[in-house]
Each structure stands twice: as structure tokens, then as C-alpha cells.
Write a structure and sequence with these properties.
Layout lengths: L7 E6 L1 H18 L6 E6 L3 H9 L6 E8 L12 E4 L9 E9 L3 H11 L5 E10 L11 E6 L4 E2 L15 E4 L4
Parallel strand pairs: 2-3, 2-5, 5-6, 6-7
Antiparallel strand pairs: 1-9, 3-4, 8-9
The protein binds inosinic acid.
Amino acid sequence: MIGTDPNLGREVVSAEVLRNRIAELGAAITSDYEGRAPLLVGVLKGAFMFMSDLSRAINLPVEFDFMAVSSYGSATRTSGVVRIIKDLDIDLTDRHVIVVEDIVDSGLTLNYLRRNLMARGPASLEVCALLLRDGLQKTDTDLKYIGFTIPPAFVVGYGLDVGERYRNLNAIVEYVGAE
Ligand code: IMP
């Protein structure tokens, strides 16, 4: 697909670099949460692949839950309006929660999620974002774990989509097609 699709531009993070960084993130979480059983909260759909690989790099008894929120629809710009489409199944009271996000752009989605989840009484709440788009945050994001800071281009692959496409690419690639 990469190389022949005119909508795809340069590779921003290769599969190998992703793998190595995710191993590092997993090791950091393993050491920071030693003796605890963190609850990973994946933000669907974009974080599903990252969550899968990250969880296997964590050597602790983790639990999983997922939330689905809408922010972008099929366009490539944030609306600032966040809506919960699928809520969590697990009670967060006294849990050590790690929110697993694909990409933080304006930070509006995360800001909303953090406030929403903090109101449920977790023992702690941290965020692990695979990607942070450099410099565009409209709000203080306070991310404990960041995979990569990337330049301000729209990207797809490794879970990230445009109009539900390209999630299955094994690298992060710039999207240069029409919005
Ligand atoms: P924010 O609320 O502006 O921080 O946007 C975060 C959400 O927008 C992410 O969870 C993604 O679902 C989506 N998003 C932002 N940038 C991109 C991108 O470059 N590619 C695909 N999805 C993106």
C-alpha cells in the first residue's frame, strides 16, 4: 500500500522504530507500577493497535477496558466537541488508570476524558500517548508517557485513520490526500 497509494506521503515513524519505543514505554510502565495492577483504558478506535502492543510490553497483571469517543468524524480537523460513544465497563474507583491514546493534537479530547475519568475516583490517572503533534495544544495536556513528538502533518497508520481507512498500516505515514 505504501509506495503505490498517491494519498500517502513520507513515513513518519517506521515499524521498527515503533516497536523499539513501545518496548521502552512498556519497560517504564512496568517499573513505575511495580506491585500494582494498572487498568489500561484504550481510546477507540485509534489506540487499539498501540494498546495491543504496549500491553504485551508491560510485565505486570494489567487489565483492559475501552472507551469510544467521537471528535473528528471523517474529516481531518478537530471540532472540539467530544461525545462518549462507548463507556467503560469497569469501575475506576481506587484503580491505577493509564489512558492509552493514539495521538494528542489540540488536547481537547484528552482534556475532556481526563476530567470525565477523574470524577470516577481512581487512585491515580496517567496518560500514555503514542504521538503528540508538536506545538498545537490548546490546553495543558500533562502527558506522563509519550511515544513520539511529530511535526504538524496529518498522519495515518498503526491504528490511525482518515475516514476509517489506513488503520492497518504497520508504520505511521503522512496523509497527503484530500480531506
Ligand atoms: P485532539 O482532541 O485535537 O487532541 O484530537 C485527538 C484525536 O483526533 C485523536 O484521538 C485522533 O482520533 C484524532 N486525530 C488527531 N490527529 C490525527 C491524525 O493525524 N491522524 C488521525 N487521527 C488524528
